[in-house]
Amino acid sequence: MISVIIPTYKPGAYLWKCLDSLESQTMDKQQYEVIIILNGCRDPYYEHIIHHIGKYSMNIHVAQTDVAGVSNARNIGLDISKGEQVCFVDDDDWVSEEYLQQLFSAVKKTGFITVSNVEAIDETSGKTRADYLSSVYQSLCSQKTVGLLKARRLLSSSCCKMIPKEVIGKDRFNTRLSRGEDALFMAQISSKVKGVALADAKAVYFRLLRTGSASRSDKSLKRACGDFLLQEYSFLKVYLSDIRHYNHLFFLGRFLAVFKGTIIKYFSD
Prior knowledge:
By secondary structure, this protein is α/β, with parallel strands linked by helices. It is built from nine helices and twelve strands.
């Protein structure tokens, strides 16, 4: 029923923690598959992964591509996935034991995606840190289901969610973007999202805040401006491609979020 897609690049021991958490799921292992996409450098990582997954009883598929990039890896995972529902998990993150069960239990209506609770863990201290995804989830979870606009901040990430394959359809991640690709993908599929269901708080996605990770590394003003222009252009292109069916206010929020996440963030840091 569920395909869990994990892109990984030169993985370390954190990947094993991610896989351990998926092996420990309360859901019947025949009901989900795990797809690992090793992108970029093959050796010695591919053999390490093949050797390590022998200890698990869950269904695991491993694919490799010489093309580095999380978007390309996720697209490959989508192309080979067999589940009716899709979950994206980053290789340095992990999930609670009831993650898949609670997300699936929250599925109630056609066209609804389900979202989980989130905890951000600092790699250095091991302590939980404030996280915007967690804050938004906590503010909405009592409502069980919400509309697209209310859940717009949750849709900045493709992780911590269960997304119906029929909602994704033929849409894929934009491989030109190295930042903001998650938010753009969620915006692409937003015209087919009827609403958002909040899973039980027992479904927890643990985000590891690693120094030097792609989404949290420092950048120059030139890089910030480049990211701003490319992301805004990409969102505008998607919006204009089917303007009648996209929510105008949702995309306005995305445009403002890109400005805040690139230009404003650069000066505030």
